[in-house]
Specification:
505 residues, alpha/beta, Rossmann fold, 16 strands, binds 2-acetamido-2-deoxy-beta-D-glucopyranose, signal, hydrolase, Ser_caboxypep_ser_AS
Length: 505
Amino acid sequence: MFFSSVLHIALLAAASAAVAVPNPLPSELGPFAKLNAQAKTKAKLEERDDASAKYRFLSDATQQYQVTSLPDVPFTLGEFYSGSMPIKTGDTSRELFFVFQPTIGAPVDEITIWLNGGPGCSSLEGFFQENGLYVWREGDPAPIQNPWSWVNVTNMLWVEQPVGTGYTTGTPTAKTEEEIARDFVGFLGNFMKAFSISNFKIYVTGESYAGRYVPYIASAILDKKDPVNFNLSGAIVYDPCIGQFDYVQQQVPAYPFIKANSNFFKFSTSTMNRLANLHQSCGYQRFLDTYLTFPAKGLQPPVRTQSGCNIFNTAYSAAQSANPCFNVYEINQTCPTPQDVMSDNIFPDGAGGQTNYFDRPDVKAALHAPASSQWTECSNQNVFVGRGGPENEGDLSADSIQYVLPRVIDATKRVLVANGDYDMIIMTQGTLLSIQNMTWGGSLGFSQKPATPINIPAQGNMGIQHYERGLMWGETYESGHMGPQYQPAVAWRHLAWLRGEIESL
Ligand SMILES: *[C@@H]1O[C@H](CO)[C@@H](O)[C@H](O)[C@H]1NC(C)=O
Ligand SMILES: *[C@@H]1O[C@H](CO)[C@@H](O)[C@H](O)[C@H]1NC(C)=O
Ligand SMILES: *[C@@H]1O[C@H](CO)[C@@H](O)[C@H](O)[C@H]1NC(C)=O
Ligand SMILES: *[C@@H]1O[C@H](CO)[C@@H](O)[C@H](O)[C@H]1NC(C)=O
């Protein structure tokens, strides 16, 4: 996908462990445990029957999507729906897959959409490991209640898209973001119709390659010119692919990143010297000196990584030799790599083999997912079928900073771009550098260097915020690629800002 030569990493695929880990799942403990479990299930069912009378979105039309329990999730799900929804009304040959969980707090007339990246990675990662009500984190033997669930305050809609991802139905045909955004808006219209939703605010959020999905989809929502039914009200992107990703967000910032985090990389002096020389000779330091300035000096020239200048791959290989469990998505990880229910095959697959959580037949049945689908966290097929494109992903659309991201900022005045400092796949400095090549609100980049701390109760200073002309920037200290997973209390502040509860982070 991203690095045809040396590497093959999806933006947002958690790098999965090659090491087999013994199955830690609790087993049945004999007849008493079973009886107890039955009594509990009965109590739970009764509780649910009472509760469902109050379910806001339950109707004859939505009942087919209702989910009442999930295998190995020992909690009351509450109001919960999932299933396949056509892109074009009545055409079941191309469908996206959604999980919809209305808020457990006071009812709100809004939908917060969450999208993971890849391209081709499932948004169920967000649902089950980042901002859902219950999360099954890497390394945990069972799911836990998420103390920072976004479901606490908003109606969450996680959507697997584009076609070719996760449980979606159909064959990938898209060559551009414009096409997948049109598909998404078709899906969203059908979803809102089925759930009798109108006049809701819509927030679009996501991570990684969704740095392209989110602004393109938000922009397509604006194209509807229907502020009653498609009231786009803001967006958040985490560690997003918004600029000339491979050069500006990976190569240029790589050496300063490694130097600042030398305690994790532990490179020899000779390796550091080799990287320092590349950083100079390939022009990366000059690029930083010229363009990472406040206010921005001018437009950055179009760029491509020259051969011999792939400092990112050189550093990544060295990091893996030094630390076999090095995780490019969270650089402070060491061995052993924790087991991940999303990508490690640790559950019975119903046919005598082993598979991941969402590929289990019982999980698919519970979620109303196509039984024949072969679910993987990131698709094995390409979900974009163009040739090349600015990120070499078969996705030919312009970088988000060129048109769609500025358009969404100008229209909503409420867009947040966040980046975690322990993320090496999209580095904080590179994202900021991309912002300095974006024109919104009538001028280029931020006029001032971000410097205001983000103070989080019980954690202290957890980053840097900066706001200008509708765009909020949030650098997050000690966070890997998946913002809501690695620093959930900070992401909680992001969500509060998005929803207009607070005006600074
Ligand atoms: C979210 O709701 C749960 C359940 O009521 C609660 O335990 C948790 O503290 C809430 N989290 C926040 C950040 O409000
Ligand atoms: C759209 O949402 C905004 C808040 O983001 C609200 O002020 C406005 O009234 C809404 N527009 C419509 C047509 O409901
Ligand atoms: C900077 O923006 C200009 C004009 O919008 C574009 O032509 C150029 O390719 C961009 N450079 C980078 C490095 O993104
Ligand atoms: C990496 O850093 C995060 C944030 O400080 C921390 O929660 C996590 O435990 C660290 N991981 C390791 C393996 O040290």
